[in-house]
From TrEMBL:
One of its GO terms (molecular function) is ATP binding. Beta-alanine binds at Q59. It catalyses: (R)-pantoate + beta-alanine + ATP = (R)-pantothenate + AMP + diphosphate + H(+). This is Pantothenate synthetase. The gene is panC. The lineage of its organism: Bacteria, Bacillati, Actinomycetota, Actinomycetes, Propionibacteriales.
């Protein structure tokens, strides 16, 4: 496994094909390991897997946790090596943004809803760094977790609209045994908050079970679970079509939630079949 920290080093690295990239902000956990394992499986023993580690300042608002976001490079590299990563790109802020960007990716109207409504400008920062990483790593496929479902949806739209020759591969959310979605921010939770956070998954699964009775029943079941834990402050709970447009008739849908547990903000989502 080779560690690169400059664009020049990355360009000089062997471009073995097929090439898969997994983009992260570090603080890797089993969810990231699942992405890397899937990447390794898809490119085969003769392909290459690239891991990027960069805490992207463009996607953090002024009151968010950029400064305290965990940086755990040594353990990240150990996980990467264990999952068969060939190349790690870990640039500094000055390396990736030598000047304050004057041109960024405009993510369209979906970026102003859900996460974008609570975090204005967030997805412009996400898509800008994803576009840069796709350009620099030149992969055949890029893997993203379904936990960040709105992010995944917008990346798919960007790649389609800009005719990028790369396959975007979704990977299902990895959960703890009790259902809590794995997140680098889970380490902020104390024992009480960790227990309270489980209400997000309970609400989602309650909604999924009510899918046979239609959208209103789904929302009512989820809200009933959330009301039992008033200390968890809900930013949004939404039921959308798989492309995050409005739900129209029966079929597949996606329920998304964001909430604050103590000072920690968590997101999750689940696929629902509406009858």
């Amino acid at each position: 496994m080779r560690l690169t920290q400059t664009k020049a080093e990355l360009r000089a690295a062997a471009a073995i094909r097929p090439r898969a990239v997994v983009m992260t902000m570090g603080a890797l956990h089993d969810g990231h390991a699942a992405l890397l394992a899937e990447a390794r499986e898809r490119v085969g023993p003769d392909g290459s897997v690239v891991l990027t580690i960069f805490v992207n300042p463009l996607q953090f608002g002024p009151a968010e946790d950029f400064d305290r976001y965990p940086r755990t490079l040594a353990s990240d590299l150990a996980i990467a090596k264990n999952e068969g990563v060939d190349l790690v790109f870990n640039p500094s802020r000055d390396e990736l943004y030598p000047n304050e960007p004057s041109i960024t990716v405009h993510p369209g109207p979906l970026a102003d809803e859900l996460e974008g409504m609570v975090r204005p400008g967030h997805f412009a920062g996400v898509l800008t760094v994803v576009a840069k990483m796709l350009h620099l790593t030149a992969p055949d496929l890029a893997l993203f977790g379904e936990k960040d479902y709105q992010q995944l949806t917008l990346i798919r739209e960007m790649v389609c609209d800009l005719d990028w020759d790369v396959d975007i591969v979704p990977v299902p959310t990895v959960r703890e045994a009790d259902g809590l979605a794995l997140s680098s921010r889970n380490r902020y939770l104390d024992e009480t908050e960790r227990d309270e956070a489980l209400v997000l998954y309970r609400a989602l699964t309650a909604g999924a079970k009510a899918g046979m009775n239609g959208p209103d029943a789904v929302m009512a079941a989820a809200h009933a679970e959330l009301e039992a834990v008033p200390s968890v402050k809900i930013d949004y709970l939404a039921l959308r079509a798989p492309d995050l447009g409005p739900v129209i008739g029966p079929g597949e849908a996606r329920m998304l939630i964001a909430a604050r547990v103590g000072t920690t903000r968590l997101i999750d989502n689940i696929s629902i079949t509406l009858r």
